[in-house]
Amino acid sequence: MAVLAALLVMAILAALGLWAAGAADLPGGAFPSVAAAVVVMAVGGSVKLSGDAGAIAETNADLSVLPLSVGLAGALVIAAGFLRPLRHRAVAGTSELAGWAGRVAALWVLLLIGLGLAARHRFTISLGEGTASDISDVLDASPRVGFETDVPLTLVFGLLWLAGVLAVALLVSRRAPLPARLLRFQESVRPAAFAMVVLLLSYVALGLVIGLVVAATQGHAAETLAVILLGLPNLLWLAFTLGLGASWEGRVEGPFGLPMPQVLDDVLRTPENSTLNLQTLAEYDSRVWWLLAVAAVMVLWAALVMAARSPARMRAWQHAVHMAVALMLTVLAVCLLVRIEAHYGLSLLGIGDLGGGLSGLVLLSPKLWTALGLALAWGLVTGFIGGLLTRRVRRHGEVETEPEEA
Does residue 352 come out as left (phi exceeding 0), alpha (psi in the -120 to 50 range) or beta? Predict the structure, then answer.
């Protein structure tokens, strides 16, 4: 049930997002295959792109991006299904947990194989009217682009994705049982893990509200809904790292680009790699400084949540250390998940681009060590403050004792 429910949710989100993006008009009945490919990519699977343009021309393409809206929805569903039969247990053996995970993984492998076989198609791209179209007809150089799933690699990364989801689910849930040998770690690990999940989901919830308002009031509703359904966490978790002060590098060329907001595309559409941070964004729109304020509030809130769920005997410096480590790992995960690398080009006789509008490039990668250093500093400060502010908060499970009468 967990695996099937996750598949259903991911397939619906992928299909609706692609439909809103206009992919329902793809030629040759490609829509189901593209939707399957989006689901494969959302769980870390590998989709290979290939192309050619007749005997004297060639295309090349590569794509590395995770549609995190689809992946996040699937992760939440499959985690809830995995935890449900374990919720009333205090302790579970390693073999028992491995058995539950193994059953989920076995069905997950079958699902990935089915998606891999379904996620393949081939397109012929029209160059429109004019000289480029005439040349392509005469020389049999009409560009054809296809995609297919690398099934073995998809199984590897898909199982790693599943393992990560199940591990995080066990770490976050207060009611999920752990093996006896791991119980000593739950007081320090579980509150921090829960706080980080709350932090990331809070960003998504806030962005969802803003996105729906934008779709209803600013026009371009279909494009906005496509971003929400396919890549909302991509944008919001990028904004989270920018709010912490992190910098990214990237470049945008050709007709392709980053989705809303437009300011991202403006900063990165340069001949060489550009730096994306609050300062460069503020040159185009000063409102981006609000990302700093939002990050400060959100991270402090996460620190308070972590401290409130931790044992009362824990000191403020311990909260600071736990928050710093948790925030560094969270920023590391975000940097790995949000990065983008996409390229498509068409050349004739190995020279130039045929119909220049068909060539495009989108690159976005983090300055990782700077981002991790900032996360460490933010975690230490907010964790210490959270520990001080929650000293008098009553912890879960604590029992107040009445003083004995003389």
Answer: left
